[in-house]
Amino acid sequence: MSEEEVHDTSSEASEVFTNQPNAFVRGVRSIFGYRKTSLTLFVILTIVVTAGLSFYDNSLELTIELPTSQLEKEILESSWLDLQNIARYPHTYGSRANDQVHDYLEEIIQDMEYDNDGEKIMFESGKGVVSYYESNNLLVRVNGSDGTLPALLLSAHYDSVPSSFGVTDDGMGVASLLGVLRFVAHNQPRRTIIFNFNNNEEFGLFGAHAFVKHPWFKQVGYFLNLEGTGAGGKAVLFRGTDYGIVKNFGGVRYPYATSIFQQGFNNHVIHSETDYKVYKEAGLRGLDLAFYKPRDKYHTGEDNIRNVSPKSLWHMMSNAIDFVQMGVVDDSEEPAVYTTFLGYFFATPISALARVNLVLLVLFPVVSTPLLFVIVKYKKWKLRVTNFLGVPLAMGLAVAVGQVGNPMLVSSHPMMVVATTTSIVVLVYYVVLNGVDWVNTSSDQKLVTMIEVSFVYWVVLVYVTWSGGDHTGEFGVTVLFFVQASTSLLGLIGWTFTRVRGGDEPLLSGEEERYGTEDERDTEKPLVEHNYDWSLQYLLIVPVSSLVVYNSGWLVLEGVNKTVQESLASEHLIYWIVVVFSQFLVLPVVPFITKFNRYIVLGLSVVAVVGVLMSMAVHPFNQGSPMKLRFIERVGQNDMVEVYGRQGFVEDVLSDLPSVKQTQAKLECEALPDGLEVCKYKSGLTPGNLTVEVTTEPRAESYGLISGAITIAAPENRMCTVHFPPDRVKAVVVGKFGNNFKAIPDGFSREKGNYIYKDRNGISQLELYKLDWNKDYHVGFEWLPDIDDEGGMRVEVECFWGDMVPAYQEVVHYSPNWVTWANKERGLVGVVKHVDV
Question: Can you tell me which residues bind Zn(2+) 1?
């Protein structure tokens, strides 16, 4: 070799050596280059950060601090003691313990300005249902420094259901009111505050209805209702009447809110109601602050002091203390969209969000369509129909995997169900999109997929915007569409700067390398084609979208997953939520899914297989997440215990009861509509000293109608119901019986101490609630006789008691630890009598 040749070779080697990138550059390329290993790292980090932030945001222990000031410490200690005393026993309206709670509260407030509300009300509480109620609310008024401001009502109910100690529902609300009362006793508020410790919320919101008739109601402009539909945890802002009042919640120290639950009420996904409904319908503006999970302990004996903590109580109480110090309320009365994250509160009128949505819906198609035209026509981006088949095909197949195995499993293992479903959805997308990628010649299938996902979000956003004010919980769709569409738009803009093949590559190249197995082919392309734009696209789309979807979806699922026990319709709804949740969790990573490496695919396959197998093998209920059964014992012609629950579970529980085995009682199980069943049996454990006597009074005929009356004697009783044949009874009266029904006006009226209600469409049921334990009920009514009878009418009377039920004590004591019990009716036992009038 000549000296010149040696010199040239040395020069070339030196040039190659000097052109080698340094360690930093190689590190950046290995992390941000579009390689399977890089994507795996990004995905793992996204999962860890998303789950970690969501866990922190929803954690009571990590986000709420106990008070440090001496006054607030004393208030919390006193209120916690109040809660322990209030929830010592179940204290339903029909129990003596209810009177004890009333007297306990009255003793605390006796030195303040208060009124032992004795309103008697009568109103139509449902279609064909009329209710008569005697109230014993406790009202307290603390006058503010500015008498020109409308008063603020704070409300909580001190009754429980007969099957629960009522700690969360609503002992913590009552204890929080007492805490606020002690606070304002030391710090005069600016506006007058009226406290309504109301009774009998559980069976018809009666305490709230009674307050609306009280003279103090006229002072009130705003309200804060404190409730509980779970058992401890964090108190969430369930709903607000309007933006003007909702935005004041941003001033509390520990805001925790989402308008998703508000939409759940508006769309009737959440069926239970609170006093909020009464106050809103009466024209007040306010908020509903409540504990919301877990619902399988709601209204059961598990709603007890052991399952809550002072920190839960302090969360509700401290926010109430802060809220009562609000200043002037904005006049805006349109629905509000609101949420919190990491303690930061955000609220906006629904109209403002709608305007943003309209701009986004119009702007992105208008901008992206010309760009797409230019790219395809002048930049030679080759697209085929097959490019656009992947996402819709995979989405359709993924919907089919909504329910895996045991349908009840979501009640106790929601994370397992979501993880299994999501893993299967990811695998479906992975297989389908890799197939599409294999047959396509497109040089940027990733951007095509981004555009398709953007279109999916666009369609959803159109629906959300068109639906209007009832859809205040779908604000996350705006965020999802914005980040996805913006990133797609950036990709299209990058393509417009791409030179036709043979030219120089742009800074944001649309070119995407083809790859083989694992990472070896990721390094085969020249350095100019490392494609770092994918990391920017990933960071713009996936972290924000994943956090929005995961945090919102998990909040919804934790709030409603227990309702799968309530009906087949609820089961279908829950699994629809799971499928939608999984789809939206996966959509942000769909553009990058073909780059998943073998370890992610293997891990997802293991999760899917193990999840499916466990869903078939694991019992759906356990001590921590029990099944709820509902109990009522009816005493009358056929003394029977009735237990209601989902089909397939009730008989096994009851067959092991001692009274059933010893008496060889026959279990009679009957399938009910919507996936429920009722099992009945005769119990030897009959309650004692429960008597109902019904006597009739003379009747009279007038203008074709017949008037009659009955007297109901039910010692130690507060609650009875009179059932009439459908559509025949046109008027009812509680009090003295009279014959002048023709002169009675439609609706409610009061005459000489009698409470009268007339409805020409017919009254099928009259509910009676009284305070005097031993006073008889006197009920008159007017009815229209059938053509084929002699004018008589059979009336059924059922009176309820909330205690003294040995059969209920037996089922609680001997049932498995994965079962909890709740009341089916207003009491645990009902005594039934029939009388011909």
Answer: 157, 169, 227
